[in-house]
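Q: How do we represent a protein-ligand complex in a form that can be generated token by token?
A: Start from the inputs.
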Amino acid sequence: TTEIAIVELPKGPLTPDHFMTREADLPAPGAGEVLLRTILISIDAAARAWMQGATYRAPVNAGDAMPCYALSEVVESNAPGLTPGDLVVGETVWAGHAIRPAKGLEKVPAVRPLTHLMSVYGIAGKTAFHGLIHVGRPIAGETVLVSAAAGAVGCYVGQIAKAMGCRVIGVAGGPEKCAYVTEELGFDACVDYRDPGMFKALRKACPDGVDIYFDNVGGPVLEAALFVMNDRGRVVCCGAISQYDTDNATGPRNLPGMVVVKRLRMEGFIVMDFAHEEAAAQRALETWVGTGQIKVIEDVIDGLENAPAALIGLLAGENRGKRMVRVGPD
Ligand code: NDP
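Then emit the structure tokens for the protein with NDP bound:
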């Protein structure tokens, strides 16, 4: 099979030179293993963080095939419970085919289009739902601020918060993206974090302060958000994209000061923590998609060979909604 591997771990920004394409021989699946054909690869900002050392998963090393989360079809099975033709999601690698342990793969129904299993009904939608509902706990009338607002998770955070009767402010890169967030996604306002006047714009967009900040980026945006939080506000720590693709990350200078003075609650979470709430999340998301309160935003790029550029471009803010690479036909 063709696979894409990491040549060298990046120190500064990720470039195409950090990757190489190679051919790998696949053995027959061993006991408890399956042979998978990759259909859709999820392109995740977190993949860049895995290159910095251990996170919630083991670190990625030079020479490894690039790990990813993907939707695949079972081609050959040597594991109970999975048969050829089954669709599964779970961790695999940037490759046309791969041998994986069946443990850790989740069988999924053939929802059409399959891309929805990567976006609204996949990790992006579930992360938005669980983080906002269980960690943020929004109440109608509250103000919700979300960063990476046009991204895979952010676009659902804002749309769910709107559906729950909150006022929603986004943070995104560039005036065009901000216009997209208000006009297409229906947020009440959006602030451009690249504009030097960001802090003033944020204050203006949030005249009543912020009750929930859903933080996808950390760094200077988190610092600005802490200043506009209301007393007893909640900061949902989902990720820290601003810290992933650099060896020179800057953190908020007002931490923990603002947390103390404003009696804030900052809480991190990992989407898997809420696996027991999966069915409820699925039902709620399906309802909102059905009523049109949630628009499904997807950014699909064709061809395994384009995966490195897709990840590099994601880190630079090219994407709108969930970015994925289509490797093979449905
Ligand atoms: P996105 O689809 O939002 O893509 C990344 C976006 O981040 C880009 O489009 C870009 O948009 C923005 N960005 C890039 N660099 C910066 C920067 N320096 N400062 C601010 N924004 C930046 O990614 P996801 O929705 O997949 O992920 C969002 C966050 O959620 C990530 O932190 C990820 O790690 C996290 N996550 C957490 C999970 C959990 O269980 N806790 C599960 C899944 C994801 P722009 O043009 O606006 O800059």
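The chain has two domains: 2-119+297-326, 123-273. The mean pLDDT is 97.
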